[in-house]
Amino acid sequence: MARNSSRKKAPARKSSLMGLILGGRKATGAEAKAREEKARRASKARNSAKRQLDYIGYDAMYKNGIAQVEEGFFSQTVEFSDISYQSARRDAQENIFSVLSSLYNYFNADASVQLSIANTPIPADAIGSKRFFRHVADVDDGLVDEYNRILNDKLREGVSNLERHRYLTYMVGADDVDAATPKLARIRADVCQTLARIRCDARPIDGEERLRAMDAIVRPKKRFEFSWDKLSRFRGLRTKNLIAPNLMDFAPEGRADCFESDGVFGSVLAIRDFGSMLEDYYLANIIDLPIPLVVTLHIQPIAQSDALAMVKRQLDWMDKEIIDEQMAAVKKGYDYSILPPELRYSKEEAEELLDFLRNKNERLFVYTGLVYTYADSLEELDRQVEQVVSVAQGNSLGIVGLDYRQKHALNSMLPLGRNHVNVSRHLTTGQIAMQMPFASQELNQEGGGYYGQSKQSGNLVICNRKRLASPMGFVCGKPGSGKSFSVKREILNTVLAFPEDEVVIFDPAGEYSTLVGSCNGQNIRLAPDSDTSMNPFDLTDVEGKADAAQMAFKIDAFLALSSAMMAEGAEGLPEADKSIITRCVEAAYVQAGDRIPTLEDFYRVLVEQPEREARDIALRYERFVKGALSFFNRQSNVTFKNRVTNVDLHDLSSNMRVFGMLTALEAVRNRMYENFERGVTTWLYIDEVQSLFGHPAIIEYFSKFWAEGRKFNLICTGITQNSTYMLTHESARNMVLNSDFCLLHKQSALDRKSWVDLLTLSDTEAGYIDDSIKAGEGLLVAGGVRVPIMDDFPRGALYDLFNTKPDEIAELKRKAVFEANRRAGSGSRETDGEEDPER
Asked: What's the CATH class of domain 444-523+645-652+677-804?
């Protein structure tokens, strides 16, 4: 579990001073002292309780997630997401460290803070039998069953099969819940806002979720069956009744270092000592252990004035010790300037700490670090404890058992904000912030689709793009890197995970038709010999959309269409041409009256204009109005009524392909409006998206389309194998930076450099997309999460559906032809036999 020592790390912080100053925070004020006295009595009564119900360390839980921990104390818990830290660049690490430091410094001395990281095992009965996707009307049940089987097989391959949760709990003093609510709300808003600065999603958990987190600690491996309805049906029943274990033994087989709860054995350990330097991966190495465990840090801020006074008293005591040593040395005839090394080092560290507190925005905290693990037997528990202790020792951490204090320690593990264990030391802001709660990257979002397995743990990578702040995204990779395979798999993910949503694909290579057919979708082939057509003048019939704003967007679309066919489009359309096109688009709608105009109407209006430039524009449009390329000069005869629609463009030339894509984008925009009114999300996949960055007018149109789409539940994915060309455009770079989803497969050296610069990838992250990786491997960027993925997808019906390797597809076609011929020959012989019975 050791980290690569060559990796760049955030600056380590000295921690040896902390052994000098021990003790708890002073209570200030009569009110605070009264609360502390009540808390002391409540804690004593709780630890001596005979019933399991009375032992659990809170008094009341409210539906909104606020808990009355003890009389006069209330707490709330925020769950926050994972982000990429361990593999991030040094400057990114330093920014995360700075944000966490400001988060801890935010809390006042009258608040208590608890950081919890829980590795919870996936239930054994769920491994191998989990239903990832349900049957839907448009997809064959056999394909869905095969997909579920494949994912369950891969679930078994996971190193840990653990779900990781991160909680931040804060407790404040108040007379009652009404007085505590505004205090907790203010803290919650500030905490969530601070964590958002490092792209870490945070949300308060409600009462049921908080009880679930506690139930997983006091009753590990038991099914959580709580509901508020049970409390209303049975008078006198409390929330603790539904999570309290039936049996708790704090001396199983006479041992004092563990306990038993409903047949499961657990042990809580304390972080007692640190090495001379505190590194940012110490805690992560423990969290990464593939065992069920919970790591909890209790952090009690000390008022700055009290902290300064404490350090000054320590310095005064040291000065007195130095004077005594010097006087003794003079009496014995020794050199009085020679001091004992320990005293000299302690003095230097105390002076350094005083400087930190005065001049470097550091504060002092009372710190307690605890690690809890559990197993089905004492033997297995001892092995897990040995693993924790061994990893800790390898990282210069001293972890000890809490003999005869397991009852206090278990209550301290609950996400309630109250520490019941008197094993503490003092740490500064930086020393606490250095203990990063972010370990190996995992991504497992409820309701999402499968994107591969984590390269680090083998666990499934499940991403729900709808949960991202900006679900727009890109999929990029060299030919043969697995890019098309990944996109096809995500399309099926979308169809299965969101049965109400619609999917549209722009297919310049004609490679998605088989997948679309398997989803009962429609293939719209745009070609000179096709009988399908799309009219670029179409407007949506959604009420309130055929207005000036939509006309303005339609004008932008025609500027882009005109730019795509004009030689000077690469330099941008002349202003005179823009004015003429704008005038003629509006005139075409006016002259058409009640019907939708066509390109011929637009052409006719252009010819009627007095300017020479108008006749030049008309001449360039003439080929799309007359002759073989006039199939866009018709009223639309296609709809997007199917859940999956593929716009096949592979029979169009390069110029015509861009024209067709722009026309299809207008059709998708109209459908997007209609779907938005129905509460339906529209998913759009654009292959060879780099072709839309050829001309300034097209770029401007597509950027507006991208920005507008996010407001109308459009989730657009651009797919390209030429990243450098696309990213040379400022608009494209901004689109990437404003999108929270990016799937990068193998990149060429030039493309890799472009992504490293744009996304500020670290050397480690850049290695996940270099030339050495296999097809299907890469880096998934989803919000603040960056996960290295791999995917060895097994052969079968789904593999054949996703596969784009030419040699394997050719082999499949040969087999299909052979099988068809074999069946035809067999059928012919059977017919012959019927016609001539004597044969």
From this structure: alpha beta
